[in-house]
Amino acid sequence: MADTWLIVGLGNPGPRYEATRHNVGQMVIDELARRRSESLRSHKAGARVAESWLRPGGAKLVLAKPNSFMNVSGGPVSGLAAFYSVPAERVVVVHDELDIPFDSLKLKIGGGHGGHNGVRDVAKALGTPEFPRVRVGIGRPPGRQDPADWVLDPFGSAERQVLPIAIGDAADAVEQLVEEGLLAAQQRHHAPRA
User: Fold this and answer.
1) Of 2, 3, 6, 4, whose CA–CA distance to 134 is shortest?
2) If I label 159, which of 98, 107, 137, 142 is the partner at 20 to 30 A Cα–Cα?
3) For residues 98 and 119, is the Cβ–Cβ distance under 8 A?
4) CA distance linking residue 160 with residue 162, whole number of Å
5) 22 is catalytic
6) All structural domains of the chain with their residue ranges
7) Domain spanning 4-189 has what CATH number?
8) What would the pLDDT profile of 49-91 be if each residue is shown by its tens digit?
9) Residue 2 burial (CB count, 10 A)
10) What is the pTM for the complete model shown?
């Protein structure tokens, strides 16, 4: 049987947060579901989920958006991992990252949470930080704006022009990570843009 991968986009629930920087991980899940003509349905683990395949005959993908707020994402993620019997090394967490410039992304497995409370809660709930992460850059706020406010702001108009490309790149990175492994995905997606 093909490996099952749980792909989780972190964010906050509800229309108030839908278009904010903190929800870029959930936007990537929407793109992955759209590519597969899937819609997300409610799951008892406290998330919306779509089950699909990377490609015919490939790995099974469980695409998920927790219904919880960002800082308590761990419960739904660990619940889904248990339900689908997915080990931490196949739980891919897609999230926003302040320390990466907008329109860039980085992939890694394990490490610290970098002050990201959603990642911290997932690591705590899974009992390990050793899970793959697709970190979508949102950049630091300008001037003295509090990062906590910045992440809850919608993307600016110039950013919105580029956002679909950034989301598409992150979705590509998830697919490549599952298909070819971390190193191949890093080599492609860590390169500076031409």
Assistant:
1) 6
2) 107
3) no
4) 5
5) yes
6) 4-189
7) 3.40.50.1470
8) 999 999 888 899 999 999 999 999 999 999 999 999 999 999 9
9) 11
10) 0.95
Q: What are phi and psi of 103, to 5 degrees?
A: 70, 25
Full 3-state SS string of the chain? CCCEEEEEECCCCCCCCCCEHHHHHHHHHHHHHHHCCCCCEEECCCEEEEEEECCCCCCEEEEEEECCCHHHCHHHHHHHHHHCCCCHHHEEEEEEECCCCCCCEEEEECCCCCCCHHHHHHHHHHCCCCCEEEEEECCCCCCCCCHHHHCCCECCHHHHHHHHHHHHHHHHHHHHHHHHCHHHHHHHHCCCCC
Q: Please report, in range form, the residues annotated as the binding site for tRNA.
A: 17, 69, 71, 117
- CB–CB of 171/32 below 8 Å? yes
| Binding-site residues | 17, 69, 71, 117
